Amino acid sequence: MSAALGAMSATSALAQVEKDPTARLQQLGRYAGRATICQEFGFTIHQDRVEGYANTAIEAGVRAGLSEDLAYGYMRSAMDDAMRLAQVDVEEMAGRNHEDEAGLAQNVRTQARKIIATCREVARDPASRTILSDSALSDEILLRKATDAALMPTGYASWQTPYMRAGADMVQAVAVCAAHLSRDKADAYVAELYAPNRFPPAVKDKAREYFDFWMQKGREMAADTDLDATQCNRLLTGRAAKLKAAPR
Questions:
Q1: How far apart are CA 227 and CA 147, in angstroms?
Q2: 3-state DSSP call for residue 128?
Q3: For range 192-210, the mean pLDDT
């Protein structure tokens, strides 16, 4: 039964080519081009079916009165344009024209939502779903899976909190000012961040990885940062106060 329904859907989809061959061929070309990035966002692309998908659409265009070359041209041109625009969308996720990391995180999520929505459209079209399988996961889960790793250094992954971001600032300052701190004093500044039960089990390891990342960044900065003891004391005192006040 499911195979029969699938055949009926495909037949219906190709009938759309016959009604408006140019517009539908361009749409199917766009879908094939957009599908190229959808695997990165949780969808399954069937690369081995793309040629058959394109040929079937072109054949329908020919039956609707287009020449084979013209039908191919509409399909190919739309596909190439869509592939280029899909890559632009991915590149815009990492755009740097933002005032702060919160703005960057918002841009990453906005662009990812746009891509996920387009992939849903492709995967639910009765013709192009043959080359792209839909994901059973919700858009929000797909969004988290697609963006959390990139956003982790910024402190704005889905699991990160203002307290964690303040903690990252704290460990960075400790690393930058290590030359002016005893080991006990340095440990005291960050002890609560590394306490065994400070964070829920689901994020504990990720939080430690995040703090270690910024500890290493601080060590790298220390070589180029010439803060004296007074400056470091001011920096550490300020960061400790922000950590204490940060919502958990």
A1: 35
A2: helix
A3: 95
Contacting residues for 171 by C-beta, under 8 A, at least 6 apart: 190, 193, 211, 214, 215, 218
Other CB atoms within 10 A of residue 174 CB:
26
CA separation for the pair 39, 20 (Å, rounded): 30
Contact yes or no for 176/235 (Cβ under 8 A): yes
Residue found under tokens 């994901």:
135
Phi, psi of 237 (to 5 degrees): -65, -45
Residue 148 vs residue 5, higher pLDDT: 148
Beta-ladder partners of 125: none
CB distance 126 to 140 below 8 Å: no
For 244, residues 6+ apart whose C-beta sits below 8 A from its C-beta are none
Q: What are phi and psi of 44, to 5 degrees?
A: -115, 115
Residue 21 CA to residue 26 CA, distance in Å, equals 8
Residue type, 54: A
Give the span between the Cα atoms of 41 and 113, in whole angstroms.
10
The domain spans of the chain are 2-151, 162-245
Tokens 């005032």 belong to residue: 99
Residue 125 CA, chain-centre distance (Å), reads 23
Tell me the pLDDT tens digit for each residue of 52-104.
999 999 999 999 999 999 999 999 999 999 999 999 988 888 766 677 899 99
Query: What pLDDT is attached to residue 248?
Result: 85
- Strand blocks (E) in the chain: 44-45, 132-133
Looking at the chain, how many residues does it have?
248
